[in-house]
Specification:
The complex is a heterodimer of chains A (106) and B (344).
Chain A: E1 31-33, E2 36-39, H1 64-69, E3 86-90, E4 93-98, E5 102-105
Antiparallel strand pairs in A: 1-2, 3-4, 4-5
Chain B: H1 11-27, H2 34-41, H3 48-62, E1 68-77, E2 100-101, H4 104-116, E3 121-126, H5 133-149, E4 153-157, H6 163-171, E5 176-178, H7 188-191, H8 197-209, E6 213-215, E7 218-220, H9 226-239, E8 243-248, H10 265-278, E9 283-286, H11 290-294, H12 297-303, E10 309-311, H13 323-332
Parallel strand pairs in B: 1-3, 1-10, 3-4, 4-5, 5-6, 7-8, 8-9, 9-10
Antiparallel strand pairs in B: 1-2
Classes of the chains: A mainly beta (106), B alpha/beta (344).
Bound molecules: iron/sulfur cluster and zinc ion (2 copies).
Chain lengths: 106, 344
């Protein structure tokens, strides 16, 4: 039951907020899989860099703090669709998987 | 939230407690009591190097020069029904951590990679209140597969156990079980409401009685007072765990403690010294949050200040220093990695 509006946005892997330069053509709603909300939230059209309301800990700057955090933790949100990813951390690596956009790892 | 005590002991009195600690802990091997630990935690900044030096001497005399290296891994991440306010894996908070299970081949691969670093401990962790039959079966299967392919001690951390589960884990060769007290008894209700301190103690005591080594840790920097930090160290000492992993709060997004500030680095160093002076013979392990609280230099300071074990590489949901950074540091400090001894 995906409800992503048409968009060409990119999202912060740490907080799920939109990154500067993102373009919205529609509102992003909750992303639901198996009856569970796994991502999304409400973002107003055209509000580049604005925090998504469902993630109040995100910043409204250009996510510099988030970038620093991403040196110390794996991304939690898909950069393409802002779904929350399934993240596995092992002693020597990590992987993060979006059900729509695949897996990133290190 | 309780406010932090900022009182600091005047320099003269500070050195008095260090003299007492030298005679009591270093010479006689008797840990400091709660009131004495408060004095250590209140040391002025200029006394910190002396306290760390003493803690290092205590560690060398009572534990030796070896450093125990461990890797930890989550077999079941997220979706926990408990409400530990620091934890991104609680299913009760708006945390970005999704529930996920690690499959056994990945677990075995991670055990192999961990052993290749020289680590002798591999701890399998699950975000649960306690294990159900499905998880116990997974653990049994995982232990058998790892033992077939990897030379490493297996530890587990699966929440609260009943007696039958304790007996099963001991029988399957789990050599150490982790169950943290996390914080002082007097502060626990501020941090966890879905289970009690006594329930935690029950599991710890059952683990010890079954002959497994008890790993029982602390998480400091959650807003507890210095007195409560000393209380925690004394309560851990009374349990006589084989190992104490010392964690520093890394405030996680979406948790009730997300806005708690990062602990002051000097307070973290005081705490390391205090925990060593409370428990002269315990394996004292650097665990989560050290990178954030103490930065890159913190690992060196800790290893020269009472710490004698590290978690190598990543934590359960966050990343640690590269494994090679810690391993190279051990070489530089002339601290040998503890060798593998299958104890069970
Ligand atoms: S029991 Fe463990 S996994 Fe569950 S919320 Fe508490 S610390 Fe997190
Ligand atoms: Zn961000
Ligand atoms: Zn995606």
């Amino acid at each position: 039951m995906t409800a992503i509006g048409a968009m060409q946005a990119e999202y912060c892997g740490h907080c799920g907020g939109t990154v500067a330069g993102a373009l919205f053509e529609d509102v992003v709603e909750d992303v639901v899989e198996d009856g569970t909300v796994i991502g999304g939230g409400t973002v107003r059209k055209g509000t580049n860099g604005e925090r998504p309301t469902s993630h109040p800990h995100s910043t409204s700057d250009s996510h510099q703090g988030c970038q620093q955090r991403l040196a110390m933790e794996p991304p939690r949100y898909c950069a393409q669709c802002r779904r929350r990813m399934k993240v596995q951390v092992t002693p020597l690596g990590w992987s993060a998987e979006c059900s729509r956009h695949g897996r990133v790892s290190r | 939230m309780t406010t932090q005590t900022t009182h600091r002991t005047p320099a003269g009195a500070a050195y008095a407690i260090l003299d007492i600690a030298r005679e009591q802990v270093l010479e006689r091997g008797k840990g400091l009591n709660e009131a004495q630990l408060v004095e250590i935690l209140q040391l002025p900044d200029e006394a910190i190097p002396a306290a760390m030096q003493l803690a290092h001497e205590v560690r060398l005399k009572h534990c030796g020069e070896d450093v125990e290296v461990e890797g930890i891994i989550s077999i079941k991440t997220g979706g926990c029904p408990e409400d530990c306010h620091f934890c991104s894996q609680s299913g009760l908070f708006d945390s970005p951590v999704r529930g996920v299970w690690l499959d056994i081949p990945e677990l075995v691969k991670a055990a192999k990679e961990t052993a290749a670093t020289g680590a002798t401990e591999f701890c399998i962790v699950a975000a649960v209140r306690g294990p159900d039959i499905k998880l116990m079966n997974q653990i049994k299967f995982a232990i058998d597969r790892i033992n077939e392919e990897v030379e490493i001690n297996i530890a587990c951390s699966l929440g609260m156990l009943n007696q039958r589960q304790v007996d099963q884990l001991a029988e399957w060769g789990v050599h150490r079980y982790n169950h943290n007290l996390e914080t002082a008894r007097s502060y626990f209700p501020e941090v966890v409401t879905t289970h009690s301190y006594e329930e935690r103690l029950d599991t710890c005591n059952m683990v010890k009685a079954a002959g497994m080594e008890l790993c029982c840790g602390a998480l400091i920097g959650m807003g507890e007072t210095l007195e409560q930090r000393a209380e925690l160290a004394a309560q851990l000492a009374a349990l006589e765990p084989h190992e104490v992993p010392l964690n520093f709060l890394n405030p996680r997004p979406g948790t009730p403690l997300e806005n708690q500030g990062i602990m002051d680095g000097k307070d973290a160093l005081r705490a390391i010294a205090a925990f060593r002076l409370a428990m002269p013979r315990t394996v004292l392990r650097y665990a989560g949050g050290r990178e954030l609280t103490l930065g890159d230099l913190g690992t060196r300071e800790g290893l020269l200040g009472g710490i004698n074990a590290v978690i190598v590489g990543n934590y359960l949901t966050t990343l640690g220093r590269p494994a090679t950074a810690d391993l190279n540091l051990l070489v530089e400090l002339n601290m040998p990695i503890k060798e593998l001894q299958k104890t069970l």
